[in-house]
């Protein structure tokens, strides 16, 4: 119970708290509610040792009387605190209880730093033994009073400060150390930074994932629908971090009284459902003496409470629309399924069993209605779910159904050191076969084999334009992507920095155009004419260079004469056999040390419109990747300076990210290729300038297609099928597409083992020019795996069923694993493969008795062991 009142701390007086305790005892305690948590305002000043002292105005008979009353009702008591030490307490220089050698005047970190969101106090220097002694003295006092719960507010990173300009982590660890011996629950608040989720899980029992749910509209309501709906995308990221030992806190649940909640009845039920399926604590924000009947029905539904107390946080199938299905797999093989309609009008919401990992029929029960709905073969559709409404279901698979369990399910228990993903996962990958179609009958020339050509349109944000340029689109004149960039003033210029071995400048030729000076890497190369006496030539290659060293180069064109200069596109040539994967600056695969922030919505042409930035020298970024090369791509600007680049711990180069004027976006400032195919780490350290920025990293990996370039000649006697060797098992290939149109297996192409043959009949029907066939390979199950590197690391999965199958990755870096069922070694499986494969069935055990079983996998050899999915059959 946590109540917000516009009267602030004056509301939480002794009489009110005892009344709340009595109301809970009468109405809610039989259903498991047991905490009376008192928020900010309970204390007033400090004692002679700098420890918080309860307010005598609020508690005229002493705070202990209130605590004793709550305990007498069989309940627990919680109070509130924030990080730091106040200026007044620092100046008072009081002794620390039990440690006369310690004084409060010595506890603040020097130089002084702000400790909390509001600036009430200074950060404590937890490196000093006296700081821990001070926290211990307060925790000991709380324990003497009988305190059971502490909410620690304004914790950073979080609470509106995620850039480490404020950092309460050391105090969190100190408070955890002080409270743990007393068994006091430790709750962190608010909007904690998910990048430090493992830290919060190490030291706390719960953590607020967002801002206050209250709307702070006194006299009107406690909350509002937008404050509820914004939690869904947060939970889509946070759900996996909750579990036994620590839980996601959604703030107070304000659904108990329609007159004060600020929500419709459907919205109240939706909020209660979200808290329940998220296994979030039911901290009630209502006046418990004023609960209405509908509110009581929500808060005392035993089937919904059982969902909450099962401790199985739900995850979304997708958050792409307002009609969302969230689910969790329970210990008894049933599913909890919530069908949310977050839209503003009634809608249909469908749960497909396959999306949950269930193959087979199931019985369905409505938990709010407490009604069995019947058996459903492949899914359940709820019609006319109200605006902002929900249906909450229990889905019980029928005999013979199979259940697929992801590696991150709570029922999978890991022993040893395991990491989720860490660059060892495979997401859905699309690799392109670059096809150049020519017709030598008509005088066409076939390009050199083994060269990949990528087309870069004129509106690519990495192209820099100087002078006055405009874009003309929907011209209908045959331009690439039907647009061009143009300028009229001599001296206006374009430039583009690329990685490759060659480039074509492609533009329109027309009588209104003239000469353009071309520079490559700052060296004048040629004056080209874009003039054509009559007519209009679209997509004309007016300048081309090949044979450059594979690396970073810049082409620049300067208008010299004519009325206009136009740019349509560039053709960039790179060696075949390599594909590039781009990591945005906020990708979990990139780690940052120091004080970094994220700037979004800049509108400067950044990749995905955001960058990470830092200001202090020696702040750094690093990323461990699998591949043969990497590019550091960032903005260049006068405010930036030098960055030291390290590869695998070895200093490589100091790169300059400054430019004299203007702003260069998506600039490749460092590139390395030719690394041994494997795991590498790039690290960049700020050396000078006001800022260091990271926009993205481009990782080069061997292509999954051999070859990944092809030339098809339409000349009848020269036509031939294109044969491609896959670098993944054929079972991993999900589709081949050209321009969004899917090729038909058996008609447009065939597969044989790991070989794909594109039929000449299909290729002959394609237009002359460059095209790309996109080969899409499936991901690991749900885009993730768990991995361990130490031999002896293991995991277990308990189930009741008649068969079990382990499906996981095979790869060159894997070795052998021992598989046990019910503590009996059944098989040693070999997971090594010349190529990386996903969802390979490596072990199956059937004809088991329909009783409880335990599957156990132990790493024996190889660099790494991956776990992806377990599938079992129930009877």
Automatic annotation (TrEMBL):
It comes from Kribbella albertanoniae. Keywords: Carbohydrate metabolism, Cellulose degradation, Disulfide bond, Glycosidase, Hydrolase, Polysaccharide degradation, Signal. Its EC number is 3.2.1.22. This is Alpha-galactosidase. Residues 706-778 form the Carbohydrate binding X2 domain. InterPro entries: Aldolase_TIM (IPR013785), Carbo-bd_X2 (IPR005102), GH (IPR017853), Glyco_hydro_27 (IPR002241), Glyco_hydro_b (IPR013780), Ig_E-set (IPR014756), Melibiase_C (IPR041233). The keyword Hydrolase applies. It catalyses: Hydrolysis of terminal, non-reducing alpha-D-galactose residues in alpha-D-galactosides, including galactose oligosaccharides, galactomannans and galactolipids. Belongs to the glycosyl hydrolase 27 family. SUPFAM superfamilies: (Trans)glycosidases, E set domains, Glycosyl hydrolase domain. Pfam families: CBM_X2, Melibiase_2, Melibiase_C. Residues 322-395 form the Alpha galactosidase C-terminal domain.
């Amino acid at each position: 119970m946590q109540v917000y009142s516009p009267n602030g701390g004056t509301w939480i007086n002794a009489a009110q708290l005892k009344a709340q305790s009595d109301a809970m005892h009468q109405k809610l305690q039989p259903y498991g509610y047991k905490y009376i948590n008192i928020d900010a305002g309970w204390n007033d000043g400090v004692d002679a040792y700098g420890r918080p002292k309860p307010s005598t105005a609020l508690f005229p008979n002493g705070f202990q009387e209130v605590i004793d009353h709550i305990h007498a009702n069989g309940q627990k008591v919680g109070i509130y605190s924030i990080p730091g030490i106040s200026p007044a307490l620092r100046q008072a220089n009081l002794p620390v209880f039990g440690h006369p050698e310690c004084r409060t005047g010595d506890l603040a970190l020097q130089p002084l730093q702000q400790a909390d969101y509001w600036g009430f106090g200074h950060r404590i220097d937890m490196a000093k033994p006296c700081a821990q002694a001070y926290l211990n003295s307060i925790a000991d006092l709380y324990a003497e009073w009988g305190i059971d719960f502490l909410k620690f507010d304004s914790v950073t990173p979080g609470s509106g400060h995620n850039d480490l300009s404020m950092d309460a982590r050391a105090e969190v660890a100190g408070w955890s150390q002080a409270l743990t011996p007393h068994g006091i629950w430790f709750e962190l608040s608010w909007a904690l930074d998910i990048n430090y989720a493992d830290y919060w899980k190490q030291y706390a029992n719960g953590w607020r994932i967002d801002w206050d749910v209250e709307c702070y509209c006194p006299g009107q309501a406690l909350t509002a629908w937008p404050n509820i709906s914004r939690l869904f995308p947060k939970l889509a990221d946070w759900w996996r971090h909750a579990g036994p030992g620590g839980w996601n806190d959604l703030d107070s649940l304000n659904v108990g009284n329609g007159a004060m909640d600020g929500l419709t009845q459907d919205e109240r039920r939706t909020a209660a459902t979200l808290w329940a399926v998220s296994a979030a604590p039911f901290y009630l924000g209502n006046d418990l003496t004023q609960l209405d009947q509908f509110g009581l029905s929500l808060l005392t539904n035993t089937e919904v409470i059982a969902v909450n107390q099962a401790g199985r946080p739900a995850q979304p199938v997708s958050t792409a629309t307002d009609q969302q299905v969230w689910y969790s797999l329970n210990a008894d093989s049933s599913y909890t399924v919530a069908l949310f309609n977050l839209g503003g009008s009634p809608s249909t919401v469908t749960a497909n069993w396959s999306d949950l990992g269930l193959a087979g029929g199931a019985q369905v029960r409505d938990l709010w209605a407490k009604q069995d709905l019947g058996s459903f073969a492949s899914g359940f559709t709820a019609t006319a779910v109200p605006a902002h409404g929900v249906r909450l279901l229990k889905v019980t698979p029928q005999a013979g159904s199979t259940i697929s369990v992801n590696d991150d399910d709570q029922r999978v228990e890991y022993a040893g050191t395991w990491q989720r993903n860490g660059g060892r996962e495979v997401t859905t990958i699309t690799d392109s076969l670059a096809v150049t179609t020519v017709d030598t009958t008509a005088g066409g020339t076939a390009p050199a084999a083994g060269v990949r050509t990528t087309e870069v349109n004129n509106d690519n944000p990495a192209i820099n334009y100087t002078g006055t340029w405009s874009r003309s689109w929907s011209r209908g004149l045959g331009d690439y992507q039907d647009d061009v960039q143009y300028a009229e003033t001599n001296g206006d210029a374009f430039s583009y920095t690329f990685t490759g071995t060659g480039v074509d400048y492609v533009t329109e030729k027309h009588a209104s155009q003239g000469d353009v000076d071309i520079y490559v890497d700052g060296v004048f190369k040629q004056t080209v004419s874009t003039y054509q006496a009559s007519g209009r030539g679209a997509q004309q290659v007016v300048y081309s260079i090949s044979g450059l060293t594979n690396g970073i180069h810049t082409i620049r064109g300067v208008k010299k004469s004519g009325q206009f200069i136009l740019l349509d596109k560039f053709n960039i040539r790179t060696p075949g056999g390599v594909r590039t994967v781009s990591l945005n600056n906020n990708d979990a695969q990139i780690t940052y040390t120091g004080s970094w922030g994220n700037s979004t919505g800049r509108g400067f042409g950044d990749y995905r419109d955001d960058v990470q930035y830092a200001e202090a020298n020696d702040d750094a970024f690093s990323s461990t990747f699998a591949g043969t090369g990497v590019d550091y791509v960032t903005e260049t600007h006068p405010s930036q300076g030098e960055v030291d680049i390290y590869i695998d711990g070895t200093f490589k180069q100091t790169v300059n990210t400054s430019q004299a004027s203007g702003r260069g976006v998506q600039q490749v400032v460092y590139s390395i290729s030719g690394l041994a195919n494997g795991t590498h780490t790039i690290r960049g350290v700020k050396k000078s300038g006001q800022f260091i920025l990271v926009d993205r990293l481009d990782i080069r990996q061997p292509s999954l297609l051999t070859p990944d370039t092809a030339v098809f000649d339409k000349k009848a006697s020269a036509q031939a099928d294109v044969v491609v060797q896959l670098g993944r098992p054929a079972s991993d290939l999900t589709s081949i597409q050209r321009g969004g149109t899917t090729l038909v297996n058996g008609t447009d192409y065939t597969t044989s083992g790991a070989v794909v043959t594109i039929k000449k009949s299909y290729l002959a029907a394609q237009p002359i020019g460059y095209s790309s066939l996109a080969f899409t390979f499936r991901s690991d199950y749900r885009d993730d795996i768990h991995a361990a590197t130490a031999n002896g690391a293991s995991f277990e999965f308990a189930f009741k069923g008649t068969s079990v199958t382990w499906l996981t990755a095979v790869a060159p870096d894997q070795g052998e694993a021992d598989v046990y069922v019910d503590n009996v070694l059944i098989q040693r499986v070999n997971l090594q493969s010349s190529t990386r494969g996903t969802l390979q069935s490596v072990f199956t055990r059937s004809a088991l008795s329909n009783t409880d079983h335990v599957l156990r996998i132990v790493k024996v050899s190889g660099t790494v062991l991956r776990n992806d999915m377990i599938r079992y059959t129930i009877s």
